[in-house]
Amino acid sequence: LIDSNPWGFSENINDAYNIKNNKKIGSQNKLFLKKYSKLISFSQKWNQVGYSYVNNKDVYFFNSTRAQKNWLEFCKIQSNQFLNQQQKLKNIIKGKRVVLYLFGTFSNLVQLDETYDGRKLFEKTMKVLNNLKNFFIIIKPHPNADLELLKKLIDEYKNKNIIIINTHTSVLSNFCHFAICNYMSLAMGDAWLNGTTTIEFTKYKQKLLKKTNFRSVIPEFADYFIDITLSKKLEKILYSNHKLELRNYKNDIPNDDEKIFLKEFNKS
């Protein structure tokens, strides 16, 4: 049985749903996966791990495939090829700071304050991004985003330095200085690994904020966590100095040696 969560996170994200459904914080869904002999997990936090230990399953831990060096190197090559094929874009962004806006939805979200929805967060974010000087904004929409509405709203800004691109985050973030989201997306981890400065510009429920200690539900991948009302703070960070550098990520795993993992697992 292989963990379907490529990062291995569950606790704080799960609590967002618990809060919405008036469940006790820390509650987990019942386990239904039982018929297996070996488990591969990206984290010790997965409740399936505890079940496996109690029931004498063989458990193996592996660092996220999205954080593997060969994957990151592959994405860097793809990024260079992408820019070489998009010469107009390559020329436009030259000398500019590039912001990757990971847009999700215009709808309500479980972790958001009841007075906010995705559209309100989008409008407040775009108000900041549209007024930046010498910046280029790439909006990467979620596959389920309302593209027609998104394009309509962007066209209203009449800003030639704002475009929509659907290429993978791991490719785009190689030439983006900042990545912004309005609620933590696991795609932010892809940007963070490429050295992009990550910013979650949002408005959580107060109960969830207390649970997360006023941080992101996944603080590992949010360099900055900013309340949506603090637009000047966001603007200040975007204009500040930054440094692009590759970052390593290791989850809470007792071993991350791929060779040992493969040797043990192939015994079967």
What is the gist of this entry?
With 268 residues, the protein is an alpha/beta fold. It contains 11 helices and 8 strands.
What do these coordinates show?
By secondary structure, the chain is of the alpha/beta class. Helices cover about 35% and strands about 15% of the residues. The strands form 2 sheets. The chain has a 6-stranded parallel β-sheet with strand order 5-4-3-6-7-8, with helices on both faces. A two-stranded parallel sheet has the order 1-2. Helix 2 links the parallel strand 1 and strand 2. The longest helix has 17 residues. The radius of gyration is 20 Å and the shape is globular. The model has no long low-confidence stretch (mean pLDDT about 85).
Task: Describe the protein's topology.
Blueprint: H1 11-20, E1 38-41, H2 47-54, E2 58-61, H3 69-85, H4 87-93, E3 97-103, H5 118-130, E4 135-141, H6 147-155, E5 162-164, H7 169-172, E6 178-181, H8 187-193, E7 197-202, H9 206-211, E8 224-227, H10 231-239, H11 258-265
Parallel strand pairs: 1-2, 3-4, 3-6, 4-5, 6-7, 7-8
Helix pairs in contact: 5-10
